């Protein structure tokens, strides 16, 4: 196998291993993170009903500022927390989606905590 295929397979295995232990409910939704090389996305998902309750991305924030990716990720976390609190969601379950809890993923989580979410 080529190295990129091996890396993708390992990431998928990590994701499934984490998702086997984490589920989101309407009262305590799953806070799912997706990180690409250029962008970062966050969603609050109710797995029982299969619905996304709140979502936020850096696509609007990044074009306006000259901040680093980590600073933008923290801003996305705060924005997601504001939207969640508007819908009366305070507690969530964090799903790092197979990514390391480091860098932009950690900054997103810290921003969400700073915004008022508990996990």
TrEMBL record:
What UniProt keywords are attached to this protein's entry? Ribonucleoprotein, Ribosomal protein, RNA-binding, rRNA-binding
CDD domains, from UniProt? Ribosomal_L18_L5e (cd00432)
Q: Which residues form a coiled coil?
A: none
Return the GO cellular component terms, semicolon-separated.
Answer: cytoplasm; ribonucleoprotein complex; ribosome
GO biological-process terms attached to the record: translation
Q: Could you tell me which InterPro entries the record lists for this protein?
A: Ribosomal_L18, Ribosomal_uL18_bac-type, Ribosomal_uL18_bac/plant/anim
> Keyword Ribonucleoprotein: yes or no?
yes
Q: Which NCBIfam families match?
A: L18_bact
Subunit structure, per the record? Part of the 50S ribosomal subunit; part of the 5S rRNA/L5/L18/L25 subcomplex. Contacts the 5S and 23S rRNAs.
Q: Which family does it belong to?
A: Belongs to the universal ribosomal protein uL18 family.
Q: Which HAMAP family match?
A: Ribosomal_uL18_B
Q: What's the protein here called?
A: Large ribosomal subunit protein uL18
The gene is rplR
């Amino acid at each position: 196998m080529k190295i990129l295929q091996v890396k993708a397979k390992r990431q998928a295995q990590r994701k499934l291993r984490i998702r086997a232990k984490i589920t989101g409910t309407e009262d305590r939704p799953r806070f799912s993170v997706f990180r690409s090389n250029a962008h970062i996305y966050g969603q609050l998902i109710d797995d029982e009903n299969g619905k996304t309750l709140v979502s936020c991305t850096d696509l609007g924030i990044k074009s306006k500022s000259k901040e680093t990716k980590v600073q933008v990720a923290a801003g996305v976390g705060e924005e997601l927390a504001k939207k969640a609190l508007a819908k009366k969601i305070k507690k969530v379950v964090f799903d790092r989606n197979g990514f390391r809890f480091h860098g932009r993923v950690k900054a997103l989580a810290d921003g969400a905590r700073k915004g008022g979410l508990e996990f």
